[in-house]
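User: My advisor asked me to double-check a structure prediction for Outer membrane protein beta-barrel domain-containing protein before group meeting. I don't want to rely on an old file, so could you generate it fresh from this sequence?
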Amino acid sequence: MRTSRRVATAMAFTCACTSAIASLAQAQVTPTAAGATAPATPSTPEMRWRFDQCMGGVTYGAPFKWALSYGGGMVYEGDRIDLCALAVAKVGLGGAGASIGLAKSYGSMGTGSAITGGIIRTFGDPLNATARRTYVGGAVHFWPLLALGGEIGYYVRLGDEAGASSHGKKVITWSAGFGF
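Assistant: Sure, here is a fresh prediction for Outer membrane protein beta-barrel domain-containing protein from the sequence you gave:
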């Protein structure tokens, strides 16, 4: 139970950080020179947050088997860094999940990474997990090339009764696929 509390605390912290980042980004204003009546022209292109798609695609892995995923959120495109505070939904043959996190793009070739925390509910026949159970945990996502990527995560089963089997209590999740 202690591990479940730690995971829940980490997810709450991730939610709070994501909300704070989005709130601060929306509060940004362009500075003006003292005594100026018109806004100053920035020397660099204006950088701001906007709502957009961050990721989506088709994957194969555990426990979802074949799955469709979509992630959207607040996107920040700057001169030096591109970020996305995102929410992700994933539905597959072996289960469904929802998560939140932060993604970063590293260049023009579509490379990037993300870290997410979330919840998974397995269906009748998941890959390497207990059927019809709920798990919480986190995952690291990576895209080495445009449209190709994968993820690896660690999730812990919730709601076990005393004496329940420990088989499948802790699950290493993984997936590989392509997306946009």
